[in-house]
Amino acid sequence: MKKYLRRLLPEKKTFTGVDIGTEEIKAAEIRITDGYPEVASLRRLPSPPGVWTDNFDEESLVQCLKELCRPNCREVITCIGGEKAVSRIVRLPRLNEKELWSAARFEIEKFVPTPVDQLVIRCIRLGRTVNFSANKQAGGSRDDGSAPKTEDLLILAVPLATVYQYHGIFSRAGFTLAAVDLQAFALWRVFGRDTQGTAALADIGARTSHFVLLRDGLIRFIRHLPAGSENISECIKELQRSLDYFTRHEDISAEKVVFSGRLGNFRELNEELQQNPGIGSDAGAPVVDFTAGVTYDPAFAVSVGLALREVSGNVIV
What we know:
By secondary structure, this protein is α/β, with parallel strands linked by helices.
């Protein structure tokens, strides 16, 4: 992994990821040392009351960002909360770029009431797959050349006004947003790039959580869970529903769950999952190294993954 990152390293030497949660703002700074990325610092502050709700005080957040981020770090990467970004993974025939955009608009119009000209839309290829449904119905079990070629696409939609709001807040704090990312991608960079088999990533927040399911290092399912550490029993239920959904629709079961985020109740999370035979769980270990004196905290998984975006590139497959 280190050799892979080193080949992709840009000339810039410092990268900062900022994760603004409902309870805390976390910032992770990655520096290039001797040709390799290392986490140089992790910093946190309480979030302003009601952050990202309709009536929160933007200036309070601006002041928090000024205090949290180092003044010599002019560019940062952040993410848009799952409650503001709509994402769907759809399986379609292999399309060229023009066809892809038309398909993305059509899919967005089906589940987002906002007019498409008021949205920022992105469509990301998650890797080519083969549709075996016709063969299965005929009693077959593998591709004989007759099954149509398809691919999984991640379609994202965010209100344009939300994107402007994020840029405006960071600009008033004195920083430029190099990128606005998604939590799922950040978690994938930290834990999922080299994952073999089927694994779930679960980042537990205070009131919401993020669920990403991977198959051999590729994202296959994303869900925003409406529960977190403040209601751990409901969080477990939502996590189990997500695992069950993927098993039913893809006929593939997760072999393990990798946890990050607020893990004060990790023992309870782990004990609940142990009731499902065949599913292991652990607190994930990030792929990046840490400088002396800096200790990894699972709450910083997303911010570390955001900083890694500019180090390792934004290639999903």
